[in-house]
Amino acid sequence: MKIKPLGDRVVVKRSEEKEKTKGGILLPDTAKERPQEGKIVAIGEGRKTDEGKIVPLTLKVGDTILYGKYSGTEITVDEEEYLIMREDDVLAVIG
Amino acid sequence: MKIKPLGDRVVVKRSEEKEKTKGGILLPDTAKERPQEGKIVAIGEGRKTDEGKIVPLTLKVGDTILYGKYSGTEITVDEEEYLIMREDDVLAVIG
Amino acid sequence: MKIKPLGDRVVVKRSEEKEKTKGGILLPDTAKERPQEGKIVAIGEGRKTDEGKIVPLTLKVGDTILYGKYSGTEITVDEEEYLIMREDDVLAVIG
Amino acid sequence: MKIKPLGDRVVVKRSEEKEKTKGGILLPDTAKERPQEGKIVAIGEGRKTDEGKIVPLTLKVGDTILYGKYSGTEITVDEEEYLIMREDDVLAVIG
Amino acid sequence: MKIKPLGDRVVVKRSEEKEKTKGGILLPDTAKERPQEGKIVAIGEGRKTDEGKIVPLTLKVGDTILYGKYSGTEITVDEEEYLIMREDDVLAVIG
Amino acid sequence: MKIKPLGDRVVVKRSEEKEKTKGGILLPDTAKERPQEGKIVAIGEGRKTDEGKIVPLTLKVGDTILYGKYSGTEITVDEEEYLIMREDDVLAVIG
Amino acid sequence: MKIKPLGDRVVVKRSEEKEKTKGGILLPDTAKERPQEGKIVAIGEGRKTDEGKIVPLTLKVGDTILYGKYSGTEITVDEEEYLIMREDDVLAVIG
């Protein structure tokens, strides 16, 4: 992938939204207002401190993450959609 | 549990909401606008300072806590519901 | 008491609201919009600085304090009501 | 007086509002939207820095001050009314 | 003058508002929404840093200044009107 | 080019907006609310820290970037249009 | 010129607004919502840091600059109009 996010940003590939539960029940809309799952596909060099030092990110390419439904900005690269967000908008790493 | 919250976040399992007092009286709605009780089931590594050092959390897995009714974001892991919030949103440890 | 407030928070037991002045005159509603009196029943370890050091509180358990009418969050422990607030919301120590 | 304000707060006894000018002219309402005069009757230990050091106040008990009309919180101690405000809300020392 | 402003504040005596230009033309109202001219008549000791050091002011008593029309608070001392404002509200020194 | 942006700002030449996809499909309006692509044509010296040191930018002249649709201010130089924005408004470098 | 701006402020003489393009076409109103061009005629000593050190400005008297249309405060000196603004409101130096 040929995107390099700036600073403390990461690029996230959204996981397929499961609209059915394991048992095959179709989820109502409200149930989907939950954090979303995604995979980190690119990370920035890190946050630049006030003195100009770089603080590397905690996340790594390949991490599966949870993020808030309204986090990040949508971008399209090579006709694929991604999200770009700051590491601080990522809630947790899964698995 | 296989969630690792990022930074100064914790994952909380909400305690059952007691809708009756000890004497069996059903609580009115307003009485439930109180802080909620929960149990810490996962904690982050800690807050990253401006210089990139990690400040570990005070809370530990297993702590029973009080938190504000509107704190945190709901997440679902393995079909169980949890809350993810910042340590600073936790009001107190009980017991 | 078995609550440990987090950080720079304190737990306050509200003093009985005197609805009469010493001379027995019933106070009008506006007169009650004043800061409230209470007693400190539990204190946190102190504020964690940006570098992770703990700055202990100035208040001690047993202090009688004044606090703003809208400060703090109500909590119920063992069927008794308390307020939990940050030390900075406490205006003064009395007596 | 038995109130000890917390941190960088001071307790102020409001001066009698002069409703007449020296020449005996009754002041209109707008003229009273000015800063108020008062006397410092108690001072806090000082502001606690981020590292936990105490920075003492500049004001002393007995200072006559000017403060903004809407500064501070009213408190009643021993049936007398006072104001409690932060030192930074005090505009100037007079005399 | 017997006022000592606190911290980084200055006391300003407003210059007479010229309602006519040099050529004697009466200025319209909008033209008066400009910064105002005044003279510094008293200055504070300076801003207290977070660590409690005093940073003295740049302005001196006697400086003629420009300040924003809505800056400062009006005060009356010995029946004369002044403005009290922070040094940072002063735009420039003239002459 | 004869513009030197101040501080941590960059000058960006907006890439032609592709209104058709590769397959020649005309994009609907909503699809264009995406971050925009552009090329860096000038960069500032860098951010000045609180102590007056200069922290140079990460971006270089010639970088192809993504930026938020509402970032930056439009400027016209020699009858050509550019955007001027802070480095922190740039989301990613491409290619 | 006899104005000395305070701190990190500069005094700007606005360039004549060209209402026609080179080809003589009269610009519509919207086209004028662009940053404006001006010349620096006076600069302050620089920003005072929290510790009281002076950080000199980057701009010099004589620089031709671009600034946002709504930046600065209008001042009139010797019947000429100028703008006074903070250095951070200046977008770029031209030429």
Contiguous helical run count of chain A: 0
Oligomer: homoheptamer
Given helix and strand content, the structural type of chain A is mainly beta
- CATH fold category name of chain A: 10 Kd Chaperonin, Protein Cpn10, Chain O
Second-tier CATH architecture of chain A? Roll
Number of strands of chain A: 9
Order of helices and strands of chain A: EEEEEEEEE
Helicity of chain A, as a percent range: under 10%
What count of domains describes the coordinates of chain A?
A: 1
Fraction in beta strands of chain A: 35-45%
Outline type of chain A? globular
- Rg calc of chain A: 15 Å
| Uncertain residue ranges of chain A | none
CATH level-four homologous superfamily name of chain A: GroES chaperonin
Chain pair with largest interface = A-B, 21 and 21 residues
Mean pLDDT of chain A: 85
What separation lies between the terminal Cα atoms of chain A? 24 Å
Highest-level CATH class of chain A: Mainly Beta
Give the spatial strand order of the biggest sheet of chain A. 7-8-2-3-6-9
Helix-strand blueprint:
7 copies of one chain form a homoheptamer.
Chain A lengths: L2 E3 L3 E6 L21 E8 L3 E2 L5 E2 L8 E4 L5 E5 L2 E7 L3 E5 L1
Antiparallel strand pairs in A: 2-3, 2-8, 3-6, 4-5, 6-9, 7-8
Short description:
7 copies of one chain form a homoheptamer. Chain A has 95 residues and is mainly β. Chain A has strands spanning 3-5, 9-14, 36-43, 47-48, 54-55, 64-67, 73-77, 80-86, 90-94.
